[in-house]
Amino acid sequence: RLVAALLCGAEPSSPSPAPRANGARRRVLLTGCFDIMHAGHYNALRQAKAIFPDEEVVLVAGVHSDEAIESAKGAPTVLTHAERSELVAACRWVDEVAGDLPYE
Question: Per the database record, which ranges form the Cytidyltransferase-like domain (predicted)?
Answer without folding.
Answer: 30-100
